[in-house]
């Protein structure tokens, strides 16, 4: 009953997803593809106020708020000292803005890049976090995917909300599609207005086989401060299921999605994607 109620509320929210068809072409992997972060089955495409990025030292940087909200760690930030202390279980890590030294469980360690402030938010190198917190991680050198594999993280509030409203046909392969590149154009939260924008996304069929028409599910989720937006994978009243064309083995394809918050003055916090196929 609770899930049905959530789905009903979701369908009534003032949110729009573009159902434009995809452009499909055969090509090899984009050599400019940057490392992408993944938590279980969820690719992380955007984190407020800026998507994870590769710094000049070729290290993937993530906002420290991400560590708390998505990885279940405790974060304390001292603005005066510009220091962040991150703890999870018995592990702790203390970092300082613009410093390549960190304290890992009482031992001073050296990093090859330094935390920095971006748009008033602290960004830290994911590598040192993974090492110091002993996170269960898989690294795929060929696809440049850094994946934290920990089923307990699916119980985090954000991911559990997505699961509650995500009604799908039976999934055949959770690793069939790889996001290669994304770009977001967005209006910021403005008093008395909705936050709107457009996401452009390029992905590749990495399933090792052709994907039949109707089976592709590059599923994008927009997580706002107070609500979650995603397209439906099964027919809903006044919301048809989008077209899902045939995709050749190894083909690169693109999608463009328009999005809108459900409430005024609401900030977009995250964009996630699932790269799967249906049976």
From TrEMBL:
UniProt keyword annotations, A-Z: Signal
Enumerate the InterPro entries for this protein.
Cu_amine_oxidase-like_N, Mao_N_sf
Ranges for domain Copper amine oxidase-like N-terminal:
49-147
Give the signal peptide as a residue range, or say none if absent: 1-27
Report the SUPFAM superfamilies cross-referenced here: Copper amine oxidase, domain N
Whether Signal counts among this entry's keywords is yes
Gene3D superfamilies referenced in this protein's UniProt entry, alphabetically: Copper amine oxidase-like, N-terminal domain
Q: Which Pfam families match?
A: Cu_amine_oxidN1
Q: Supply the name of the protein.
A: Copper amine oxidase-like protein
Q: Which organism is it from?
A: Cohnella lupini
Traced from the root, the source organism's taxonomic lineage reads:
Bacteria, Bacillati, Bacillota, Bacilli, Bacillales
